[in-house]
Design goal:
Blueprint: H1 3-6, E1 14-20, H2 31-46, E2 55-57, H3 67-73, E3 80-82, H4 90-103, E4 109-116, H5 118-121, H6 138-141, H7 148-163, H8 167-181, H9 195-200, E5 203-205, E6 208-209, E7 219-226, H10 228-233, E8 239-249, H11 263-274, E9 283-286, H12 291-300, H13 309-313, H14 332-335, H15 345-356, E10 370-378, E11 384-393
Parallel strand pairs: 2-3, 2-4, 9-10
Antiparallel strand pairs: 1-7, 1-8, 4-7, 5-6, 8-11, 10-11
Length: 394
Amino acid sequence: MRESEAMSINGKAYIAGAWEHPTRKAPDLSLAQLHAECAAGALADAGLTKDDVDGYFCAGDAPGLGPLAMADYMNLRLRHLDSTDLGGCSYIAHVAHAAAAIAAGKCRVALITLAGRPRSEGSSGTAPRPAAGGVPDAAWEMPFGPVTTNVYGMCAMRHMHEYGTTSEQLAWIKVAASHHAQHNPHAMLREVVTVQDVLDSPIIADPLHRLDCCVVSDGGGALVVVAPEVARALARPLVKVRGAGEAMKGQDGGAVDLTYSAARWSGPAAFAEAGLTPADIKYASLYDSFTITVLMQIEDLGFCAKGQGGRFVADGNLISGVGRLPFNTDGGGLCNNHPANRGGITKVIEAVRQLRGEAHPAVQVKHCDLALAHGTGGLLGSRHGAATLILERE
C-alpha cells in the first residue's frame, strides 16, 4: 500500500451529529455556556451523551486553556484533545483531524465545539488589527492601519484590476445568500435584496459595500465525528468524511499576489483524497466573510477558471434550484450568522443538513449526495490558512 493510501481518511469517519445554536445575541450567556449548549445539541442530534465522548476539539474561541478548560467545564473523560487554531477554517480542519485521530485509534467519538459573542462584545471588522498576537512582522504593517475590511477590499480591488470583475458581479453573491436566508427563521438578515440594493449600501472599504460584508453575531455550533462502527449503530443518516485538505498562504517573502487564496492547494488535495472533481459536487458551503472571499474560493477550488469567478456567480448561479452551484443555503455569514472569527463550523453544519435532506424544503438541493465545505482563516490579503472538506451521503 502506498503511503498516501495508508494515511487517507476517506471513509474512516462519519459526522453523526450537527447542531447550530439558534441565538444571534446572547448577553446573558457566557462563552463556556454557549460551547456547552452547542455540545449538548450535537450529541442529542447524534443520539449520544457526553459519556460517549473520548475526543474533544476546539480552537482559540474557547475560554481559558481551550480544550483543557472546556473539557473540565463539561466534565468530559478524554483520550485525545486538539486545539489547532487556523482562524476561520479551524473547525473545518478539526473534522479532518478528528477523522485522522479516529483512524489512528486515538478516539471513537470526537466532539467539536465553537462559540462566540462578538455581537455582545461590540467587535467588528472595522476596528484596527492588534499588533500583538505573535506575528513577527506585524510591527511593520501596523503603521499602514490594516483592518479586516480594508485588507479584503484590497483583494477585491486587485481582482477587479486583473480580471475585470465588477461590483455588480460581487453583489450577486449577497443576492444569492439573501434568497436562502429568507427561509431561515434564525437568520439575522432575512430580507431578499437586489444587486442595486447592494450597490446602494454605503462603501465600507472600497470597493466593498456594507452588504458585501458578513454580519456580526453571537452563537456557535458543534459536530460529532465518530468511527464507522459507531455511525452504523446510530439511527442517523450516514455522512461520510471522504476527503480533506489544508494549506496556508503567507507574504511569500514580499512577492505578494492578492488574486488567489490558499484554496489553490487545499482544494486539489481534498479532491485527490476523495477521488472526485469539482464537477461532482452538488452543494458548496463557502466561507463568506465578504463577497470577494466567496468569489476567490470558487475559482481556487476549481469550480471555474481563475478570473472567471465574476461571470460564474452572476445571474443567480449560486441560488438553490436556479444556479449551477447552490451555496450557503442557510444564508451563510453574509445573512445568517458569523458567531466568531473562526465560524467555519457553520459551513460543515449546513453541508450535513443538505446531505441528510434536512435543509429547508425551499433550498434543499435535489439528490444531494456530495457536498464541499471550505473556509479561510486569518486575512485573505496577507497570511491565512485554508481547509477543504468533502462529505458524502452514504
